[in-house]
């Protein structure tokens, strides 16, 4: 990158460009007004019919569009795919050179176009119709040429573009995206898509990990736990407390039932209150006998929520099976390593407060 000229004055340059907070605020307010116009004038009966057609589709939902509308069409198609709905994007240009062969009579073709007069779509529409596909036009200009080819037309009300020349497609693409994504979520609700099914379509991302992983998948197993007995002296358990990687001791009886927990925070408070008397105290005398616990089949995000819950956050949860036996421990670090978004956020917040 080149350096700024020596005489460059950012303040004077800002005045000349007339770019300031007031200008930006007015633009955002104008865009908000144009979006509100869309919401206030959208025909919900058309939208409902469109959504029902997609819901009842026996084939693939094919989206198409030209230019910026094409980008929106691709995005909406990808959203549906992520919800487990058969969908795809078909370039109108490539369709006319062989790709239209993918269409069947069971498919729905959704055409996004602001004007409804794009030459590429006008040429594609009768060809798609001849393949037996059901055609839906999503446009903003009434009385357009595409409407005559479509089985259903949905009008997206557009007051004007934010562009000062009313040309650059910025407001029109915004309402296309809002419309398409909202319909996608309506389909998600109508199909009763579960968190588990949604996560199965996102196995590599943090969304999937936080929803797919259960506590038993991320916990430290019984053989790796920092355990002790309630009669053990605190000072004899310092190595276990500091080297276990959990920041705590799990106090158990002979049958591995959990009696309580003893943390490094408990150690500091005991030392402050007892002084030299700590050498004679047992873990059982100072441990927390009512710790938060969780089961092995709980979801990782549920463990995170339990860690965050009042009265104060904790860094770990003992894992107890249905026979009340201690079988593991799940830690904040373990959840972060597993990819829980909420856990990562919580860790950042905790570090900023400390």
Describe this structure in words.
This protein is 45% helix and 14% strand. The chain folds into two domains: 28-193, Glucose-6-phosphate isomerase like protein, domain 1 (Rossmann fold); 215-351, CBS-domain, CATH 3.10.580.10. It contains 16 helices and eleven strands. It has 354 residues and is α/β, with parallel strands linked by helices. Mean pLDDT is 87; it is low at 340-354. The chain is elongated and about 90 Å long. The protein has a five-stranded parallel sheet, sandwiched between helices. Strands 6-11-10 form a three-stranded antiparallel sheet. α3 (44-55) crosses α7 and α4 (68-82) runs parallel beside α7. The relative contact order is 0.09.
Topology:
Blueprint: H1 10-17, H2 21-41, H3 44-55, E1 61-65, H4 68-82, E2 87-89, H5 92-95, E3 108-112, H6 119-130, E4 134-139, E5 152-155, H7 171-190, H8 195-200, H9 206-212, H10 215-218, E6 220-221, E7 227-229, H11 238-243, E8 248-252, E9 258-263, H12 264-274, H13 283-286, H14 300-308, E10 316-320, E11 326-331, H15 332-338, H16 341-353
Parallel strand pairs: 1-2, 1-3, 3-4, 4-5, 7-8
Antiparallel strand pairs: 6-11, 8-9, 10-11
Helix pairs in contact: 3-7, 4-7, 15-16
- Determine Rg (CA atoms, Å): 30 Å
Structural class computed from helices and strand pairing: alpha/beta
The CATH topology annotation of the largest domain reads as: Rossmann fold
Question: Tally the helices: what do you get?
Answer: 16
Q: Give the distance, in angstroms, between the N- and C-terminal Cα atoms.
A: 39 Å
Q: Kindly provide the name of the CATH class of the largest domain.
A: Alpha Beta
Mean pLDDT: 87
Provide the CATH superfamily of the largest domain. Glucose-6-phosphate isomerase like protein, domain 1
Work out the helicity level.
Answer: 40-55%
Topology as a string of helices (H) and strands (E):
HHHEHEHEHEEHHHHEEHEEHHHEEHH
Strand residue percentage: 5-15%
């Amino acid at each position: 990158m080149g350096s700024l000229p020596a005489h460059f004055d950012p303040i004077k340059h800002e005045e000349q460009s007339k770019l300031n907070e007031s200008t930006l605020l007015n633009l955002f307010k104008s865009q908000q007004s144009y979006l509100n116009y869309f919401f206030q004038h959208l025909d919900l009966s058309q939208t409902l019919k469109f959504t029902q057609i997609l819901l009842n589709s026996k084939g693939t939902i094919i989206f198409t569009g030209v230019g910026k509308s094409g980008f929106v069409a691709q995005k909406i198609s990808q959203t549906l795919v992520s919800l487990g709905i058969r969908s795809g994007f078909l370039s109108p240009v490539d369709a006319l050179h062989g790709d239209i062969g993918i269409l069947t009579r069971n498919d729905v073709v959704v055409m996004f176009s602001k004007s409804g007069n794009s030459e590429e779509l006008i040429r594609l529409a009768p060809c798609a119709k001849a393949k037996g596909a059901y055609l839906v036009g999503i446009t903003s200009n009434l009385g357009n040429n595409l409407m005559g080819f479509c089985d259903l037309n949905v009008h997206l009300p557009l007051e004007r573009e934010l562009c000062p020349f009313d040309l650059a497609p910025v407001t029109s693409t915004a309402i296309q995206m809002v419309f398409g994504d909202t319909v996608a979520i309506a389909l998600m609700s109508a199909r009763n898509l579960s968190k588990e099914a949604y996560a199965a379509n996102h196995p590599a991302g943090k969304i999937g990990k936080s929803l797919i992983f259960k506590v038993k998948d991320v916990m430290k197993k019984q053989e790796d736990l920092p355990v002790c007995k309630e009669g053990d002296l605190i000072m004899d358990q310092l190595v276990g407390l500091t080297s276990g990687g959990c920041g705590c001791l799990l106090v158990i009886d002979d049958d591995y039932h959990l009696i309580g927990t003893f943390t490094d925070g408990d150690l500091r408070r005991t030392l402050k209150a007892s002084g030299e008397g700590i050498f004679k105290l047992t873990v059982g005398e100072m441990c927390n006998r009512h710790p938060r616990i969780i089961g092995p089949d709980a979801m990782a995000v549920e463990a995170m929520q339990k860690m965050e819950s009042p009265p104060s956050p904790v860094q770990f949860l003992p894992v107890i099976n249905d026979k009340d036996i201690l079988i593991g421990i799940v830690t904040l670090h373990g959840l972060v390593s597993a990819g829980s978004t909420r856990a990562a956020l919580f860790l950042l917040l905790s570090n900023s407060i400390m």
